[in-house]
Amino acid sequence: MVKGLGRILRVVLVAVAATVVIVVGSLAVSAMGIHPFVIDVEACPGETAKFELSVSTGDKSDRVRLRAYAIQQNRHGNLEYIPAAEVPFTSWVQLPGTIDIPRNTQRTIEGQVLVPSNAGGSYHLAIMVEPQARESGYAAAVQVRYAVRLNIRVPKAGLRPDAEAKSIGLAKTESGEPIVEAIIRNTSPMDYLASAEVTIRDSSMRLLERVELRPQAGWLNGWTQSRLYPHAELAFLGYPRAILVPGEYDLRLFLRYASGRQLIRTAKVKVEAGDFVYVERTLVGVSISPDRLDFALAPGGAASRAVRFENTGSDPIRVLIQPREPEPGYERAIGAQGELELRGGADFVLQPGRSATRVVGLRFPKDS
């Protein structure tokens, strides 16, 4: 039995148009089109800027309510919405409160931003486009809200983007593996895009790895750059592949932001025995680069690729390289079609901190 059917289910759609289908017995949800989902406005202090928003209906007419919310960015890079009454600059935006749109009709809504003379920097709001719930005779009502982002940028003399690295260190995931965490704060009233990486060096300053950092939202959405809102504080995370044996390490942060600015910070961290737990595949302590070889050959052609092996642990390691077929008798296997050659020796020992290179050669016959 489904409980709580009398409550209104609220769904907020942000940044991209989407269709939400919720099935609770028999229930119909009307579709609505919104364009654009992001509005950028630039105006000088004391100016008035206008913008437009197009809303279209489906087979049913709609009464649409429009409300402004301020946007706040949380530590993970996600956006949160704050009621207008709590943030003064939402009053700059003038919009109709409600509009009626006949079915199968597109209507353009005009709005304007009244920028005060003392304003400066970036201001971010969301215009909630909310179709009003109608009595449908069903036990459940579905209310879909569309969040249209409104970015107001007010240039002002003396303002410039700036950033601060509050901390750099090592933490661990729920499974116990190491994670690099850098807390970055936008100390300016302007928003900007940023990317970050950390280099990890051992006590002898030997480079072990470069680790890309992103906020959680950046990893989930595949963003190589993340936007930092004014005065927002974000946790940039990265996942090292190197085994961090007990000892002291040098972490160096490189933050690139605002189209050309850079921030560099360093930190010393100490790893004790038992601090981290590694999954089985990383216990050997060998770094292999690259971990994939791609060949493009014409019939009768030959090519070779170099592979670098490095002992990132504290003990000598014996490495044995053995080609394997994907499955017995597989007719498309490389070994069944061409000649695979390993140069430099397939059985060798790597001392701690040392590396070795082996060359993989491949040749295909003319009739392949």
Can you walk through the features of this model?
With 368 residues, the protein is an all-beta fold. The protein is built from two helices and 25 strands. The strands form six sheets. Strands 1, 3, 5, 6, 8, 10 and 11 form a seven-stranded mixed beta sheet that branches. Strand 14 and strand 15 form a beta hairpin. The radius of gyration is 29 Å and the shape is elongated. It starts with 7 loop residues before the first strand and ends in a 5-residue tail after the last strand. The N terminus is likely disordered.
Short description:
The protein is mainly β.
Shape: elongated
Order of helices and strands: EEEEEEEEEEEEEEEHEEEEEEEHEEE
Low-confidence stretches: 1-29
Main sheet makeup: 7 strands, mixed
Give the count of helical stretches: 2
In helices, the fraction of residues equals: under 10%
Amount of beta strand:
over 45%
How many runs of DSSP E, i.e. beta strands?
25
SSE class: mainly beta
Distance between the amino and carboxyl termini = 63 Å
Write down the overall mean pLDDT: 84
The gyration radius over C-alpha positions equals 29 Å
